[in-house]
UniProtKB/TrEMBL annotation:
Signal peptide: none annotated. InterPro entries: IPNS-like_sf (IPR027443), Znf_RING/FYVE/PHD (IPR013083). It comes from Aegilops tauschii subsp. strangulata. It comes from the Eukaryota. This is U-box domain-containing protein.
Amino acid sequence: RCALESARAFFRGRHAAYLYRAGRNLEDGELSPACMADAFRCLGKAARAALCAIARHLRLRTDVFNQLLDDTPLPVNEVSSSELLVAYTHEQLQSGQTLMGCPSRSSMPQVDRGFVTLVASDYPGIEVCDPNGHWYLADGVSGPNNLLLLTGRALSHVTAGLCPISQYRVTNENRASLTFRLVPHANAILDCSPILAAGHCIRRVYQPIPASQFMDDSYAEEHAVSSHLEEPSESQGNFVSDPSLRSVLSDPLSGAFLEDAMVLQCGHSFGGVMLKKVIEMARCTICNGEVDPSSLFPNLALRAVATVVKMEDDRRLFHNAALRKRRKDVTEHTDVLKRTGSSKVCIIL
């Protein structure tokens, strides 16, 4: 709330934007809106927590992506890779005129190149494209106490497409906003090894790539946007052409296994949050057929397979955790022996 109010006061009604990075020294005569350091720190913590939750949702370690991010706290004399954009615009903004990092109402759909983006604003005005190609107002209850989470290209790359890219556009120009982008550090290598180790299939397009090249490759960004727009939505959550077994047996919205799968009259099956959404809409999201809640019946075969795969997934996670604990114990024991041996040598000398 303080940062949004300071943005309005700082820009004093004119169209402007300010990009803040932790660790960057202000140039001579440069002024900064108030509360930027506090807002950067708070939004940074929230973005990292969201990234941990996404990792857990994918059955990965919550800290699996930490090595790709800036160190916390940030080392002295080092500028953060992540950034905070504070902007203020209003309705008098001329058609086609844009601010740095702020897409205009007439612009093409936008995507961010980082892991996740958090947006806080005083008024709603961001539409997001759903898997079926429909645009909806994502921040309808937007206010100082609400954050909008958008996923970026880097997250989609390191998860081999399991986390699709969020396409968004700004429809309300009369607003003050804070946009925090969680970005990988320049020396990071973006690869899908954690996803591969978790048993997911990986397409050839997801090859290891330096973060510096990934973030600066404007052609790749444009290609990613156009290819994503052209993808057909043939099934719920079908964002990759070669989905893994786990993705087929999981609810695309919640990630939960389809242990409650139900069959519709049209023959398509849903479960979890997607099932609730289909019932509320009274329409199948795949074939657009009408749905009668009283005609649903359990998909026993799909439920059985989902249960078996979930049990195997849990067993593998438990086994991997036990191996990591065993390696840690062995390493600590070896370190103790080394320190003990060094002490004995010193005494003998």
